[in-house]
Amino acid sequence: MNRRYMNHELNQTTSHLAKLISKGSFLRGNPVVMERVCGNKNCRCILEGKKHKSLYISKNKEGKRKMIYVPKRMEEEVRAKLDAYQKIKKLTEKVSEINYRKLEIEKKEKDV
Ligand SMILES: [Zn+2]
């Protein structure tokens, strides 16, 4: 991989990352779907075994796991924000990897 291509990749990745971050619309955590029965004896969750599904965010902070309930009407929005965080994490890692490759190339250049 040549240097020009690497700089091009670095610019593209960085600008994609900057766009996602500047939106300010991300959540760190993992989506977890939990099933439950509601307690109503005439409900389909008891009668048909079709349990109610709810989305939660599993969030780790300082070694403690927290489950945060997400109301149905907010599920789509929350999932998009969780995805955005994962993308930011991936892109950050990619920028770092490109810079490691650049570092190796530049080290060789200076040794000559
Ligand atoms: Zn029910």
For the largest beta-sheet, the strand count, sense and barrel status come to: 3 strands, antiparallel
Strands of the largest sheet, in order across it?
1-2-3
Overall structural domain count: 1
Number of helices: 3
Derived structural class: alpha+beta
Shape: elongated
List keywords for this structure.
three-stranded antiparallel sheet; elongated; alpha+beta; 112 residues; 55% helix; binds zinc ion
Question: Can you describe what's shown?
Answer:
With 112 residues, the chain is α+β, with helices and mostly antiparallel strands. The protein has a three-stranded antiparallel β-sheet, covered by helices on one side. The mean pLDDT is 93. The protein has three helices and three strands. It starts with a helix and ends with a helix. Zinc ion (ZN) binds at residues 37-38, 40, 43, 45, 52. Zinc ion (ZN) is lined by residues 37-38, 40, 43, 45, 52.
Summarize it.
The protein is an alpha+beta fold. 55% of the residues lie in helices and 21% in strands.
SSE layout and pairings?
Elements: H1 3-23, E1 30-36, H2 44-47, E2 52-61, E3 64-70, H3 75-111
Antiparallel strand pairs: 1-2, 2-3
